[in-house]
Amino acid sequence: QVQLVESGGGLVQAGGSLRLSCAASGRTFSRYAMGWFRQAPGKEREFVAAISWSGSTNYADSVKGRFTISRDNAKNTLYLQMNALKPEDTAVYYCRLLGYWGQGTQVTVSA
């Protein structure tokens, strides 16, 4: 059974930064790719960023150059550093490992 617990969300002004964390348990974390997704009110959940077991990354066009995904395999933790935040980044952010999702963490960016 995989458990994922996100943290680090909050309210920030446009242009600010937040760092999200996702603590994983129940699997050998380092063997798998992981990703961040987000869901804004009234919209479908969308891909944000992913990182492979070897550290290769890819990003949605909307966050390229502003967000950085990383992982610490020793701590079984996934991160998302978010800089230059925009109001349109407001959403609940979820991490994903295999077919499992965390409970999400709310990010709200005020104009």
Short description:
With about 110 residues, the protein is mainly β. The protein contains no helices and eleven strands.
Structure, explained:
Strands 2, 4, 5, 6, 9, 10 and 11 form a seven-stranded mixed beta sheet that branches. A four-stranded antiparallel beta sheet has the order 1-3-8-7, with no helix packed on it. It has strands at 3-7, 10-13, 18-25, 34-39, 46-51, 57-59, 67-72, 77-82, 91-97, 100-101, 105-110. The chain is mainly β.
Biggest sheet overview: 7 strands, mixed
| Alpha-beta content class | mainly beta
Mean pLDDT figure: 95
**Molecular shape:** globular
Amino- and carboxy-terminal Cα gap: 40 Å
Low-pLDDT stretches: none
Rg over CA atoms: 13 Å
Measured by DSSP, the beta-strand proportion falls in: over 45%
Helix content estimate: under 10%
Number of helices: 0
Order of helices and strands: EEEEEEEEEEE
Question: How many DSSP E strands?
Answer: 11
